[in-house]
Design a protein that fits this description.
globular; two-stranded parallel sheet; 65% helix; mainly alpha
Length: 127
Amino acid sequence: MNMPSTSFSLVANRLIKEKHGLPCGGAYSNGTHMWKEIKEKWGLEGFKAMDAVVQGMSSVLWSDFNFCGPAVTAPRVFPAVASAHMLLSTFVYDETGEISENENLPLRKYFGEFIAKLKEGGGRKKK
């Protein structure tokens, strides 16, 4: 497993969801933490950034759960996942004109005023 092969895990999640409707997820940190050379090339901060991006993107691409690796990564992974979900929620709104009523939705928790402004402005409606 390596970092780029995480994409194949995500595609497999999509296929399983489409065919069987089952929840899917993964341990995407296996791909990031196994890339040992990255710390030599980009340093620890570069590794942390790369890991956070992979965790965030993986969480919004056909994953219902994410085993994010060692607990010490939570302070960077949780905000990355929340940020990815906020972007996804905005993309969904652009396509459908709707925002989930789930009170735990990161966009709803952190940007309630933004949601109100979106709704005031209309937004694209689903065709």
